[in-house]
Amino acid sequence: MNLPDLKEAKVRTNKEIKIIRDDYKVPENMEKIGEGKKYYLKTYGCQMNVHDSENIKAILEDMSFKETIEMEDADIIILNTCAIRENAHNKMFGFLGRVKHLKQSKKDIICGICGCMAQEETVVDDLKNKYKWVDIVFGTHNIHKLPEILEESINKQKQEIEVFSIEGDVYEGIPVKRDSKYKAWVNIQYGCDKFCTYCIVPYTRGKQRSRLPIDIINEVKELVKDGYKEVTLLGQNVNAYGKDLDINYTMSNLLEETAKTGIERVRFVTSHPWDFDDEMIDVIAKYDNIMPYIHLPLQSGSDRILKLMGRRYTKEKYLELFNKIKNRVPNVSITTDIIVAFPGETEEDFKDTLDVVNKCKYDSAFTFIYSPRVGTPAALMKNDLTEEEKNRRLYELNEVVNKYANEANQKYMGKIVKVLLESPSEKEGRLMGYTDTMKLVNVDADSSYLGKIVDVEITDVKTWSLDGKIIEKV
Ligand code: 5AD
Ligand code: SF4
C-alpha cells in the first residue's frame, strides 16, 4: 500500500526527470482476466482526465475487458476523478453511493478510484476508513500500473491503494483507445510548477515534466497516417513546455514542428499568460493549420487579487498580451477562466474583473466561485463573503460574459466557416463539429460527412452554438 502525502507532493527538487519506456506490461495471468466481462469508466474534470481515461480504457482492454455504457452491466467500475473544486468532490461521492448500492446486489463488482482525488490525503483517508468496499485506488502517476494493482487486490481480496506523491517521471508507451477517429489529445507535458495559491493541480499532478519533442512529433505523425484531422496539445501550462528539458526547445518550436507534420488542425490547451511569448504568437499567426483559438485564463482582473493568487502578471500586462494576440492573429477567438470571491476580494476588485471582461469581450468564459482546497495556501486565507454575495458576483459576471459570447456568435451570421464534423448531434439527421475558432456548429448532414472538414454557411445563431448548412463545392 502507498498512500498520498501532501507534504511530499509539494516538494520540487532538481532531480532529473526520467523518460521511462518499458514500465507498462500486463502480467500474463492478467491478460484474460476480463474475458466475457465489461468495464464502465466515468470521467470527471478536464481534458487531461479525458485523455487519461483513453489510456485506462486501452489498459482494461489489454486485460480483455469490453466497454459498456451501462453501469449496471459492468463487472468493473472505475471513477476517474477531479479535485479542482468542492462540487467535483461532491459529485464523485454522490456517484459512489450509487456504486455501493449496486455492489450490494452484485457482490463481485470491482470498484476503482483514480485521478486527482486519489492524490488527496483526506480523500484517501476516507476511502480507507469509511469506504473499505472500494477495491482499488490508484493515482495520476501510476495509471500504467493498473494491471498489477488489480492483480494485487484480487489476490489479497482486500482494498489496494497505490498512490505516489513523489515528483514523477514521464512514461512512454502507455496504450491509448481514442474516443474519436478524427481528433486526438496529445500530452506534451505533465504536472505544473506554477503553484497558483488556490490550485490543487501542482499537488495532484506533480512536477512539470515535458515529453521529448521527438516522442510528441512521432505521435502526431502516426495520427496523420491514421487519418486524424486534428490534434490538441495538452498540458496544464503548455507555454512553459520544454523549460524543464535541457535542450533549448520551446512551445513555439513544438507548435511549428507540429504544424509542419501536415495535420490539418493544431490546437493547444491550456495557456498561462506568464509564459506566453512573442515567438509563440508569431508561429500561431504564421501557420494556417494552427487554429486561431486561445484559452487564456484571466482568473481575476484585480492586481491585488492576482498577487494573492500568485499569478505573476498584472491587469495591464494581461491586457497588453491579449491585445497583442488579437492584433497579430487574424480572426482569433479568445476564451478565459475567471474565479470570483477569492479570499479578500472586495467589490472594487470584482469591478476590476468586470472591467477586463468589458475590455476583452471574450468569445466565452468559464466562471467559478472560489472553492478552498485543503493544503493550498489560499485555503488558509480569511474569506468573509457570504454565500449570497459570492453567488451575486458570479451571476453578475455571467450576465456580462454571456452578453459578449452572444455578440461574438452574432458576428458569424451569414458567414462561411470551416467545420470538422465529428459526431452526430442530439437531433437525428444532424452532425456537429467545431469551427477553427472553436464555435460549436450543427448542420443537417448524414454520417458520410463524419470526419470531413466542410464549408458551412451559418444560418442561425444561438448563445452557445451556431446552425449552418453545408456548402457543396462544385
Ligand atoms: N476554486 C475555483 N476555481 C478554481 N480553478 C482552479 N482552482 C480553483 C479553485 N480552488 C479554476 C481556474 C482554472 C480552472 C481550470 O479552474 O479558473 O483555470
Ligand atoms: Fe493550477 Fe495555476 Fe498550474 Fe493552472 S497554472 S494548473 S491554475 S497552479
Describe this structure as you would to a colleague.
There is one protein chain. The protein is of the alpha/beta class and 474 residues long. It folds into three domains: 6-162, Methylthiotransferase, N-terminal domain (Rossmann fold, 3-Layer(aba) Sandwich), CATH 3.40.50.12160; 171-410, tm_1862 like domain (pyruvate-formate lyase- activating enzyme, Alpha-Beta Horseshoe); 416-470, OB fold (Dihydrolipoamide Acetyltransferase, E2P) (Beta Barrel). Helices cover 33% and strands 21% of the residues. The strands form six sheets. The chain has a six-stranded parallel sheet, sandwiched between helices. Strands 17-18-19-21-20 form a five-stranded mixed beta barrel. Strand 15, helix 12 and strand 16 (364-369) form a beta-alpha-beta unit. Helix 11 (315-328) runs parallel beside helix 12. The N and C termini lie far apart (64 Å). The chain binds 5'-deoxyadenosine (5AD) and iron/sulfur cluster. Iron/sulfur cluster (SF4) is lined by residues 192, 194-196, 199, 201-202, 236-237, 272.
